[in-house]
Structure formats: C-alpha cells, structure tokens
TrEMBL record, chain A:
Belongs to the binding-protein-dependent transport system permease family. FecCD subfamily. One of its GO terms (biological process) is siderophore-iron import into cell. It is found in: Cell membrane. One of its GO terms (molecular function) is transmembrane transporter activity. It is a multi-pass membrane protein. The keyword Kinase does not apply. Keywords: Cell membrane, Membrane, Transmembrane, Transmembrane helix, Transport. It comes from the Bacteria. It comes from Streptomyces albidoflavus. This is Iron ABC transporter permease. GO terms for cellular component: plasma membrane.
UniProtKB/TrEMBL annotation, chain B:
GO terms for molecular function: transmembrane transporter activity. It is a multi-pass membrane protein. This is Iron ABC transporter permease. Keywords: Cell membrane, Membrane, Transmembrane, Transmembrane helix, Transport. Belongs to the binding-protein-dependent transport system permease family. FecCD subfamily. InterPro entries: ABC_BtuC-like (IPR037294), ABC_transptr_permease_BtuC (IPR000522). The keyword Cell membrane applies. Pfam families: FecCD. One of its GO terms (biological process) is siderophore-iron import into cell. GO terms for cellular component: plasma membrane. It is found in: Cell membrane.
Length: 351, 344
C-alpha cells in the first residue's frame, strides 16, 4: 500500500483546509515582512507608509527602499530556503534530526565561504564565487558526515551526534582560516552567527534566482521525496530509482543551504525545526508540505528579523549604547535550542 | 611471547621529544643539548626559554592533564563515550563566564576569573543534566547538551558581535583556546584550584568504578546514582573551570584523551585509566601546541583549533575501530555495542 495513494483522498478532503492554512501563512509572511520594514530605528511607521505612497523625505526614502526592503526580502527568502533544505534533507535521509546544521552542510558552507573570502578569491565584488564556494563546502561537510557515520547511517540520533563532531572539525578549520586572514574578522563573525545587517539589493539579486531555481527543483522532487519517506523498499517497489532520487534531493538541499548561508550566514536551528512544524501543520504529503515549509520558514526568519530589530532598539535605549545590535541568528538559535530541549525531553519521556 | 612494552613508555616516547621541541624550536632556536646551559644562564635566549617557553609548556601539560581527567570522569559517570565537556555545555558555559565581563568592559581581577568560569561551567552542565534528566539514555543527554551548548554559543557570538575589532581578535583567540603569551603568573594561579580538585578527583574514582556496572547494579551496591552523577559533574567543573579561565576551552581534549587511554590500557577500570587519561591529555595538548606555535609562524594559531581539527577524527577512529578481542567482556563505556544497547 503506497502512502501516496492513501494520501491522495486525504489531500482531496483536506485541500480547502490546506488552502486556508497556506493563505494564513502568506498573510503572516507579509506581516513579518512589513514588521521588518517598520521595526528598525529612526524611521517611524508613518514615514514608511508615506514612502510607499510615493512621498517622504529623501533620507527616509533611501532608508526604506534601499536598506530595509532588501533586508526584509533577503530574510524572508533565506528563511524559505533553509526550511526547504531542512525538509528535503529530513525526508531524503528519513531522519527527523537531519537539519542542515546537524548534517555538516551549514558549517561546511560557512567554511567554504570564509575560505574563499580569506584567500581573496571572493568578496562583495564577486558574490557568485562566495555561493560556489559555499556550495562546495556544504557538499564537503555532508560527505564528511557520510564517511564518519559509516554503517550507522540509519540511526537518527547517532547521525546527529556524529554531525556535532563534524561541525566541531569544520569549526576548527574555519577558525584556522579566519586567524590566518584576520582582515575582516568583524564582518565574518556576523556571518558565523547569521545576521541580516546591511543586506542590500545586490544580495537580493543574487539570492532570488538561486532560491527560485532550487526551490522549483525541490518542488519537482516532492513526489519522490514523499515515497522516500515511506521507506526504501516501498519506494523501490513503486518503481522509484532510490539512489538517484536521494542524490538529487541531497544536491538540492546542499544548494539551497549554500545559497542561504552565503546571503545571511548560518542561522541556527531554522532548517532543523521549521520542517517539523510544517509537517505537523500540513501533514506528510510533501506536495503540500514543501511550499508550506517554505512559507513557514519565511515567517519565522522574517519575524525573527523584526524581533531582533525591535530588541536591539529596546536594548539600545535601555543601555544607552549606540552600536548594540542583536543578530537574527542569536534569536533563532535561542528559540530553537529551547524547542529542541522540549523535544528531546519529550522523546526521552516516550521511551 | 614477548610482553609489549609498558604503555607509559609509549607516552614518554612521544612526550619527551615534543617537550624538547617545544623548548628549543622557534626564534631564537636553541639546540637541545644547550637547553640546560641556557636555562641556568642569562641573556635573551634564557629569558625566552625560561620565561616564555617553559611556562607555556608547563601550562600545556597541566591544562591537558586536567581536561583529559575531566573527560574521563564525565564519560565514566554518564557511561557514554561521547559525553565530553564540549557536548554538555560545560566548556561553552565556562567560556561565556570569562568572556562576558571582557566584552562588557567590566574590570575583573585575574583571581576572580576562575570563579566566573566555574559559575558558567556549572550553569551549562547543570542546565544540561536538569533538562535531560539524570537517568536517561545517553543520546538524549547528548542531544540536550548539544542544544544547551548551541544556545550558549549563540550568546557568546552575540557578545562577539558587540565587541569592537581589537577585543574581537583577543576574544576569538581565547574562545578557541590559546596558550600564547601565558607566563608563570598564569601557571601559579592554577595550583590552588588543583589542590582542591585533586582530592575530590581521588575521592570520586571508586564511585566511578561502581557506576560503570550500570545503574541497577550500582543502586544495589548502595550508590545513589543521581547524586553520584552530580558529584562527578561537580568534579569535572572544578577541573575544567580554572583551565578555561587561563587558556580558554581547548576543545575536544576531553574526548580524545580518555579514548587514547583506553587504547593504551585495554580493560582497565576507572582508577587505572585516570592517570593515563591525564597523561594522554597532557601529551595531546603539548603536541598540538607545536603546530599552533610554529606551523604558520609568525602568526600564532590557537591550540584549540588544532585539537579540534585532529582530535575529533582521531577520537572517532579510536572509538570505531576498537579491536574486539581487546575490549573487556563487561560493557565498557567506549564500546560501540554498549552505546547502541544503552540507547534502546
């Protein structure tokens, strides 16, 4: 009995429900984007509205149109990419703990990007090289985990533990690279934690074609991935070429992660936890869940971006410090760690 | 059949050349045979060797020994070959405790820093144990620890983003674990802590041997398992905190050293392994400090980066390709099969 066939009537029955949920998420994503636009310092909500009506003074226009808008768009897109990558990875490996952070993809991508920047091969002038290097690094990280996990690939928790070890090695390598070429340590550190500070149209222009292309690829893979979730034997019995489908899914996940990392850095826990929420909301049929996860990721990262801006504004007022900015990655990591604690606790209780 | 040479001979054979190299290599180069003469004399070379290289070597030895012993205590107490300070949030907590006042530009006397590290390490470790529960499966503890460590790391990164460029270099190096520019003052600051930690370590060793039998057997023998684990964690924190306060969390030594010790003394119990774990830790840090100091000269790289780069793969390899006939019949922690069994 294939899950796809059983899922079909369920999907037909739940289609209106899915549409409502998707509409709610679209509204939420828009709200997160708007919140990101108005949350920053110095420009009030009324100013932002005026700018979009076509008026406003030049400074406000510049801030809103050239700084805030690309920042919000980059945050939303990167969130969608990370969530998609996480869901694709978890489905392809049949491992609920296989986020891009845990499988060595994100640390590898960071290492690749840092190395390319440190060697002078890439910089803000040639952002394409950063993406390519991040991709290569992501593949290397995933490959390292593949080698390390050996025969215990099937065990989700073992893989996660090995992933932490791989991350440790890659972080060590990143540190060595950073300290050999210490020129831009400040900007690179923001990258390590994941930040949307100072993202401009250049980043957006680079990110969206990549995200669109690989997002479409992920959506095309939705059918095979749903089958892979049911188990290798069932998928093979239904005529799926398992090896090829899994390789395509992995390539897609690595590419999506690399794109997101090269744009906003390593945002913690988005790729690990958002897919779980998406699965809980939309069910196991990935044809509905993949777009849902993308929307949800956009909502989470966009909302976290707005939250980080509000928080840094509040902190700057409270502590009377100008240069205080809270990076988005700190918010997502803290929230994600709290969620993971709860999940681990519940899993342990179930045993 | 010839008896294989005693394990401590192996350790000595690695440690001595490394120690001599640590004292003699660098600028100025001091040939090994002139070392005693230079140490006794005066002049530029003797200042460099006596005031810079020698304290660094001693610090590397002490730090490595502490971290190695702490790693062994944690692994034995939680019966989990991957329970290392890094995985349980202990190291990150200690680092956070030291780095926070540095960034927020609060002036803290040198002697107070170990207390801050102690508080941070205890916070991280207790948070993990409290969240994971004491008697739970090893992998649940590890996952929880990874989450706690990630949250603490995020806090550290926020601090780093707040810091200005000059501080950032310092903090980044410190956070990776660096031995550069440490003097005799740093070394002497460690002794009082060791004086407290060592008796505690000796006291907790017999309990570790009982804990290894498994929770049920340990309880039947009259050990309160939960309390024993918390006590072991306390000893670990006592060992790690002063080291982290002085030279930062030298990563993954606590993972590699106990596995090396188990390879050197297969089938030994906790008491037999403890000395070897400490010795292995010391040797590992001294060896790792050589490339950290010399490989990319004149730039110094943090020793922690090298221990992470090479320590983790070697440790995992030791864990995986452990020869089956050597492992003891009882489920020794470190046995892969035991880990899998414990998970079920």
């Amino acid at each position: 009995m294939s899950a796809a066939r059983t899922a079909a009537p369920v999907l037909r029955r739940g289609r209106t429900g899915t549409r409502v949920k998707a509409a709610v998420l679209v509204v939420l994503a828009l709200a997160a984007g708007v919140a990101g636009l108005v949350a920053g310092p110095a420009v009030t909500t009324a100013d932002v509205a005026e700018v979009f009506a076509g008026g406003g003074d030049p400074l406000a226009r510049h801030i809103v149109l050239n700084l805030r808008l690309p920042r919000a768009l980059v945050a939303l897109t990167a969130g969608a990419c990370l969530a998609l990558a996480g869901l694709v990875l978890q489905s392809a490996l049949r491992n609920p703990l296989a986020g891009p952070e845990v499988t060595g993809v994100t640390p590898g991508a960071v290492l690749g990007a840092v190395t390319a920047t440190g060697l002078g091969l890439a910089g803000w002038q040639s952002p394409t090289a950063v993406v390519v290097a991040a991709c290569l690094g992501g593949c290397a990280g995933a490959g390292l985990l593949w080698l390390l996990a050996g025969r215990e690939r099937g065990d989700p928790e073992q893989t996660a533990v090995h992933g932490v070890l791989v991350s440790a090695v890659l972080t060590g390598a990143t540190a060595v690279v950073l300290l050999i070429a210490p020129g831009e340590l400040g900007s690179v550190v923001q990258w390590l934690v994941g930040s949307t500070e100072g993202r401009v149209w250049r980043h957006w222009e680079l990110l969206w074609p990549w995200a669109l292309c690989w997002g479409a690829a992920a959506w095309l893979l939705a059918g095979p991935l749903t089958l892979l979730r049911c188990g290798d034997e069932q998928a093979a019995a239904l005529g799926l070429d398992i090896g090829r489908a899994r390789a395509a899914a992995l390539a897609c996940a690595v590419a999506l992660t690399a794109g997101a990392v090269s744009a906003v850095g390593a945002l913690g826990f988005v790729g690990l936890l958002v897919p779980h929420v998406a699965l809980a909301v939309f069910g196991a049929d990935l044809r509905a869940t993949l777009p849902g996860a993308a929307l949800l990721g956009a909502v989470v990262v966009g909302g976290a971006d707005a939250g980080a801006q509000l928080l840094s504004r509040a902190l700057a007022q409270a502590l009377d410090a100008d240069r205080l900015t809270v990076p988005v990655g700190a918010l997502t990591t803290c929230a994600g760690a709290a969620l993971l604690l709860i999940v681990a606790r519940r899993r342990a209780d179930l045993r | 059949m010839r008896r294989p040479p005693a394990p401590w001979l192996w350790l000595l054979a690695v440690a001595l050349p490394c120690a001599v190299a640590a004292l003699s290599l660098g600028t100025p180069y001091v040939p090994a045979h002139r070392l005693p003469q230079v140490l006794g004399g005066d002049g530029l070379a003797s200042v460099v060797v006596g005031e810079l290289r020698l304290p660094r070597l001693v610090l590397a030895l002490v730090a490595g020994a502490c971290l190695g012993a702490a790693g062994l205590v944690l692994q034995e107490a939680l019966r989990n070959p991957l329970a290392v300070p890094e995985m349980l949030g202990v190291s990150s907590g200690a680092a956070l405790g030291v780095a926070a006042p540095l960034v927020l530009s609060l002036s803290v006397p040198l002697a107070v820093q170990p207390f801050l590290a102690l508080a941070g390490a205890a916070l991280g470790g207790l948070l993990t144990l409290a969240a994971a529960g004491l008697g739970r499966s090893p992998s649940a503890v590890l996952l929880t620890g990874a989450a706690v460590a990630a949250a603490l790391q995020a806090a550290l990164l926020v601090l780093m983003v707040l810091a200005d460029q000059l501080d950032l270099q310092l903090i980044y190096r410190y956070l990776l674990g660096s031995l550069s520019a440490r003097t005799w003052d740093d070394v002497t600051g460690l002794w009082p802590w060791l004086a407290v930690a060592l008796p505690a370590l000796v006291l907790c060793v017999p309990v570790l041997g009982v804990l290894r039998l498994g929770d049920d057997d340990a309880r039947a023998l009259g050990v309160r398992v939960g309390r024993a684990r918390v006590a072991a964690l306390g000893v670990t924190v006592l060992l790690i905190a002063p080291v982290v306060a002085v030279c930062g969390p030298v990563a993954w030594v606590g993972f590699l050293a106990p596995h090396l010790a188990r390879r050197l003394r297969p089938g030994a119990d906790a008491a037999g392994l403890l000395g070897y774990a400490a010795a292995c830790g010391a040797v590992v840090v001294v060896c790792a400090d050589l490339p950290a100091r010399l490989l990319l000269a004149p730039v110094e790289t943090p020793v922690g980066a090298w221990t992470a780069l090479f320590g983790v793969p070697v440790g995992v390899a030791l864990l995986k390709w452990r020869t089956p006939e050597r492992s003891s019949p009882a489920p020794a922690p470190g046995d892969r099969a035991a880990l899998r069994k414990a998970e079920r």
